[in-house]
Amino acid sequence: MSDKQTEIAIKNMVCDRCISVVKSLLEENNFDFSDVRLGNISFKKQLSENEVNHLSLKLKNEGFEIIHSIDDQLVSQIKTLVIQNIFHEKEILDGQKFSDYLSSNIGVNYSRLSKLFSMHENSTIEHYIIFQKIERAKELLSYNELTLSQISYELNYSSPQHLSRQFKQITGSTPSIFKKNGARAKLDTI
Known about the structure:
Layout lengths: L5 E6 L4 H13 L4 E5 L2 E4 L5 H13 L3 E3 L2 H19 L9 H9 L3 H12 L3 H19 L4 H7 L5 H12 L3 H6 L10
Antiparallel strand pairs: 1-3, 1-4, 2-3
Helix pairs in contact: 3-4, 3-5, 3-6, 6-8
């Protein structure tokens, strides 16, 4: 074993609760990790094959998966950055296009990221972003604390009407009907 730090990409780790679950799993199984972030675990040393297999089994039991291929890691990074930006750190973009944001954070040309994502997910990055924004809008509507105008601003929409159009396209319902019919209805993830 070497002293080299190891980064392992994790599929389906998309929220703060996921981070807590993974941290607990690592602690319970005495893994020597240094950090757990959305979609990623940093270990203080290189893991042996047996340790990776053990970790993989434990993660699968919790609904997570180690991502091995570079392409799958890139797709996972895209998803993590989108979710992180929409659900956790909205101020990151600061007027920047999502395509530029993704490309600069991942260090790969956006056209390559776009082709790769479409090939692996059978959907475009843009559609994935819209879907996640609508999920966030559903969540914010369920809290009943913000107006539709405030939610559209929060999610970087040009207007509440634009948000409403996309909301209806994705859910089949308007935001106001969604809110009336019990906004605590199922929220989709990933």
